[in-house]
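ingest -> fold -> write
write: protein_1
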Amino acid sequence: MDAYCTFEDAVRRVTALGHALPGEEVALAEAEGRVLAAPVLARIPVPPFTRAMMDGFAVRSADAQVPPVRLRVRTTTAAGDAAAPPLGPGEAVRILTGAPLPPGADAVVRFEWCDEPEPGVVTVLRRISPGESVQPEGDDAPAGSTLITAGTRLGPLERALAQTFGVARVRVRRVPRVAIVVTGSELVTTPETPLGPGQIYSCNDTLMAGLVASAGGQVMAVDVLPDHPDRIKEAIARHAAACDCVITTGGASAGDYDFIPSVLADLGGEMSVHKVWLRPGSPFLAARVGACTVFSLSGNPAAALVQFESLVRVWFDAALGRPAKPFPATGRLAHALHLKPVKHTRVLRARAALTDGVLTVDTSLAQSSGVLSSLVASNCLVRIDEPDLPAGTPVPLRWLPGCAP
């Protein structure tokens, strides 16, 4: 398979490789960052009883229609106490926020709307309506209702919500197991080691590991290998037998030392994508080796980032049962764009910010694949399909990991 495919076709093919992984049940305390395979349902209503929302006196509103009204105070109830016995006519219960309302009471009169002329007596100074300063049982959500939908990635807020409703265990997708194979005879893996002639420090191992984690995967192994076909073949074969996905960088093009295409062919790989009309990142391979998906990305870190965010992340979404959309947001160009016409879909690094309530996108950062420093200055990638676009044009956008507002 040597023919280029369009970006849209590549997205479809990569999505098709990402079959949803099976679900498993885990303790809620261990579910941070996991993706739900089934919705979370409320085990109890919340609140589980009708409760006071203010400090004051629980009363029967019918007793407080013509103020001032004197009521006999029977007892005090605080949060964590059982509800007081049922109220009779002319009675009140001193109640604190969060405490259960006694049967018969249907409102809470705030302390500031009352006078206490003597112990055991309260005077209500204003008319009270039913339901004032009261939260009914199940007001947040009743038992059995859907709290969080399948496909949601669980964070602190989602887990706190589930715990509030008495949920102890959740069903989540199994975490994709991923191996990373970085190739290049010029690479030095430890920054403490002085560089020799023609050498550079490797960064794709760090970059890919971070991107995999941000996409919901678990990195099982990282290899940094020289451009030696036998060693690369052995590593891919070994990892493909144990992982759901193998990501390689370098060696995916057509140079003398680009061995990945021939290695995948030797392993019986079923090629789905070989080249994409994508800039940067045209040399991009997606294949199946046994039950494992193998992605081969550019050795250039800037291009590899674009390939991961535009295409590989789609596979993770599909594997985790989430909607796969490479550029899910939209921004408006802060300036006009005038680019050289090409067949490729361009993906530009950019800086997005809210300006007068509009998300505007500045692509004036350095875009050369050889310049990495501007990646840190960017917070998103934008897709550009036309060479000439006026300021204000809507463009598809993907926030970089950790940058979404």
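write: protein_2
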Amino acid sequence: MKQRDIKPRNAVVYNIMLLLFSLYAFPGISQKLFAQQMPAIDILKKFEAEHGASVAIVVSTADGKVLLRYNEEKRLCPASVTKLFTTAAALNVLGEDFRFTTRVYADGAIRRHTLEGSLIIRGGGDPTIDSHYIPEDSGRLQRDLVMALQQKGVERIAGRVSVDASRYGFEGVNANWLMEDVGNYYGTGVYGFNLNDNSITLYLNSYGAKPVIDSIDPAHPALNWHLILKTGKRDSVYCIVPPFSTQALITGSIPPKIRRYKLRAAMPDPALFAASMIRNKLAAYGIVAEQEAEGLYVRPDYRQADVLMNYVSLPLDTIVRITNYRSVNSYAEALKNEVELTLSQGRGSQLLSANRPYGMIDYWTKRLKYSARELDLYDGSGLSPKGRVTARAINGMLTGMKVGKNTRPSENAFLQSLPVAGEEGSVKSLLKNSRLHARLKSGSMSGVQAYAGYVQWRGQWYAVSFIANNQRENSYARKAFEQFLTKFFQ
């Protein structure tokens, strides 16, 4: 028999009943919070009405007792808040001490100072090699490789320098990303081998009649740049760099009279570029590879090869911290790839896809016991505008990350990875003059503003998930969220 809807027709009566139940069910501090529910929700309703927005929010204790919910099952785009699902899964599945490993093989014997074969660098998916976000680690792989070859007395490589980027297949760019994002540094492909955040930095000079390229770092001789640029008041420039292409387009407009306008573009073939760069680096130290460098996206046969050295990344908790603090898409996609690969072990490769994180969706739906409809993810970073999740699903993930009511950030890698509101990262301007202490991840794109994380109030942590879609200006969503938090936790 179909169950009747027992919600009273009079919304005021229903809200009073809910409040009375809440006061009975959650004594102590929570009573004060429940008393502030309606005024706080009214702030969000007013924002929705004035800006044509759709809003969802859930607030709970750190152990999952829901204190407030509004549109908690509405499917909305979370943007970069998606990274929380990815980094949380990485910590749970891989462990906070996990390190990516890049192995270097000698595919042949070493005799009379000659490697009688090729040198193969087998990528382990590490997104941090020569990364802009870890400047102190720059160049470590090349230095270690030169030292390893010198210790073996190698002065000549009869074959070639090859970089194997086949760990996750060759589809590094997600088909669900927008074309205007692909080609820019934040929309670069992520592969089994990654270098320099898979990006190239260009410096443009706009002093002349037309903007020109002043310099490129790192230099990429195989890539031809085409500029369809103009100068003007509007600063709007983007790159189109198809994967594995030798042609790149820069279009749009930049302000006039700038000598070094910085622009970061995607690297179309990181494996080939890395192989060429390493070959040149070795030559500078007197180690000459006779054949041309190559990038591989189909795994070679390693059965006759010997491991020359292992290169390991920083531990996962550090990578997760950078991912959430700096909102690094390439790091998030690399973590998604490794989680997907780990989850697919023994289950075939059907879960592994560059375009949908099926394994991660499966992991979270089983863990949270929600339907896949509430976790409709299309990538690991949130760059795809197709992603849809519910505030309830985000809250479930947050409360499952073992953040106790009195947990110190140093005791929990996930909590520590979230920037402090008013002080750090993308939430530096949020709650700037507030006495509230919060650790939050933000997510934004056109018409999307989301926040998720933890608020500390009177010595206890509370989980908060907020999504706003369809508003004309994201600044109004940020203001409404700030006002909500201030009213609720007053």
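write: annotation protein_2
Confidence is low (pLDDT under 50) at residues 1-9, 23-28.
The chain has two domains: 41-97+316-489, 101-312.
pipeline exit 0
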